[in-house]
Amino acid sequence: MRPEAQVSRILFLAATVVGVLLTLAILWFMVRLGLPLFSTHSLRLLLTQDWAPDRGLYGIFPFICGSGAVVSLSLLLAFPLSLGNAVLIHLLAPRHLARILYQMVKMMTGVPTVIYGFVGIFLLVPLVREWFSRGSGMSVLSAGILLALLIAPTMILVFLESFAAVSTSHLRALEALGGTRRQKLVHVILPGARRGIITGFLLASGRAVGDTMIALMVAGNAVATPESILDPVRTLTAHIALVMAADFDSMEFKTIFACGITLYLWTAILTLSLRFLHFKATKTSMQVGHEQSF
Amino acid sequence: MGDNMAWCTAKRGQVWFIFTALLLLLIFSGPVAESVGAEPLAAFNGQSGMLRISGGTAHIPVLKEVAGLVMQAHPGIQIALSGGGSGAGIKQVGEGLVDIGNSGRKPTDNEIKKYGLVLNCWAYDGVVIVVHPDNPVKALSRAQLQDIFRGRLTNWQQVGGADKAIAVFTRDEGSGTRKVFSKKALMEKEITNKSLVVASNGAMKAAVSHNPGAIGYVSLGYLDESVAPVALDGVEPSLANVQNGEYTVVRGLYSNTRGEARGLSKSFIDFLFSPAGREIISRNGLIPASR
Q1: Model confidence over B53-99: pLDDT tens digits?
Q2: Residues A233, A143: contact at Cβ < 8 Å?
Q3: Whether residue B183 is found in the same domain as residue B108
């Protein structure tokens, strides 16, 4: 190996090692700082109790439910929307319209979440309040809708990419057989892009779990466990943002670490499943490649 | 991989947005108060550098005006002013992240001892109960207020208003305004877990002014036509009533430093006690304090 190659190899290796160590260090740091909490309150209690500091309860259960509710709703709304949008851009829309749509989607990925939050407070929250004439409008529903808007572009772009990667020989074969556009979509593109679709979904849900601003601004941040999608909720991320200002030594502040660990594990599991799928995908496509070359 | 491209565009888009937002901020931030003349600002002569201030949001209107004056008269001085709440202000000044940490409550003995804080109380502020301007309810008894915040009264009809659900707004755990309100208006009675939580005085005003069923509380300095004040036990939360002691939900506004203030911090805090500073404080609906 040439010396330059050797040097860059070492540099890249070092970067990887540092990256991995940092990620692990963050987990270690959170567990370490959260330890006083875990020694006085068992982890089980923390994860299942209510939040009522004046009664000595520091459970983050309502916030786990809050994050779960808001994220599920946003995925439920964004997934069909994004899939439809991607199909429209890739297959159905006339070329120039598809181009415009594609550019708009790309631009939407750049809108900071605080802008969505702002629009949400002044436009969406009053609408939700009047439509349902119940509650204050600050709710799982409002946050879910805005979060769907935030993650849809990510999903659409990943979907489009996986559509574009669908084997052209299959598409040609279908065209040669006189297949319709509908058949092309249902029998070739969607099955061929399956892994890409799952990847997009996971990436977007990671983004939804981690977002703070939208929930903080429009979900209402109430500490009660939500019972309906019109109830206000506090997500794990919003809880961290709100309690950050409390006294360092207070129990309230220490729950931040419990929230952090929960979020960390949540995203770690998501990312690991994403990597696993990628791994399987590349393995199978390599096998296909081998078969073709023989 | 092609998605590198997409992320790249995302970054560029974000930069573009932030740029526009900043531009709009510059255009709409309006003129910085009329000038006060050079003399009260003489203490800043010959000084330059960066002064970092953060913490309680009730302080911001006054400090923003003072900071504007100082920076206008002395281009060599940069003042960075941010919110975050009382808890954040105390913590950040204690750790040396900022030069002055504001709090809308007196720092606890523990905090003072731990960080070696020096307190400067430069104003008194009332914490005012506010509702939407269209709400006919303009007075509440303390018992009614407590029942509303505990979630026992849930409709405005129960306190003589329209048939509308009450949306209770409160502040986050680190808020000085919340601590004072909870102690002096609610008498430490609990706040319902269904209450909505906002993170600053400004956000409270925005939330209450856009929700006809809302009730919340803000610093007297934030009171304007977008929300309506509510009399407590028959006492109007006016500047006069805060001053003569009739209105009791009152707290001091503190600007804390770690150790005695020096240099820019000292000049800045001194200015708040000067006649020009006191004038700005009263114009913002607060009561100037003496050293």
Answers
A1: 999 888 999 999 999 999 998 989 999 998 888 888 998 999 999 99
A2: yes
A3: no
- Is the domain of B131 the same as that of B33? no
Q: Domain of B57: which CATH number? A: 3.40.190.10
d(CA B30, CA A193): 53
| Ramachandran region, residue B55 (left: φ > 0; alpha: ψ -120 to 50; beta: rest) | left
Q: Do B97 and B151 belong to one domain?
A: no
pTM, to two decimals: 0.77
Best mutation target among A157, A247, A278, A282 (most B Cβ atoms within 10 Å) is: A247
Q: CB distance B211–A242 less than 8 Å?
A: no
State whether A121 and B214 contact (CB < 8 Å): no
Same domain, B153 and B170: yes
Q: In this predicted structure, what is the pLDDT of residue B131?
A: 96
Instruction: Please indicate, yes or no, whether residues B29 and B170 belong to a single structural domain of this protein.
Output: no
Nearest to B173 among A121, A135, A242 (CB): A242
| Count of CB atoms situated within 10 Å of the CB of B4 | 8
State pLDDT tens for residues B136-187: 999 999 999 999 999 999 999 999 989 989 999 999 877 888 988 999 999 8
Q: How does DSSP classify residue B107?
A: P
**Could you list the residue range(s) of the whole structural domain that residue B91 is in?**
3-124+252-288
B123 Ramachandran zone, left/alpha/beta (phi>0; psi -120 to 50): beta
Ranges of residues in chain A whose predicted pLDDT is under 50? 289-294
Closest alpha carbon to B268 in B64, B106, B92: B64
Judge if B75 and B171 occupy the same domain.
Answer: no
Mean pLDDT in residue range B108-130: 92
How many domains does chain B divide into? Answer: 2
List domains and CATH numbers for chain A.
34-289 (1.10.3720.10)
State the Cα–Cα distance between residues A270 and A247, nearest whole angstrom. Answer: 33
**Where is B78: in which H helix or E strand?**
strand B77-84
Residues B230 and B210 in one domain: yes
What is the Cα–Cα distance from B45 to A210, expressed in whole angstroms?
A: 47
Residues 6+ apart with CB under 8 A from A78: A147, A148, A149, A151, A152, A155, A204
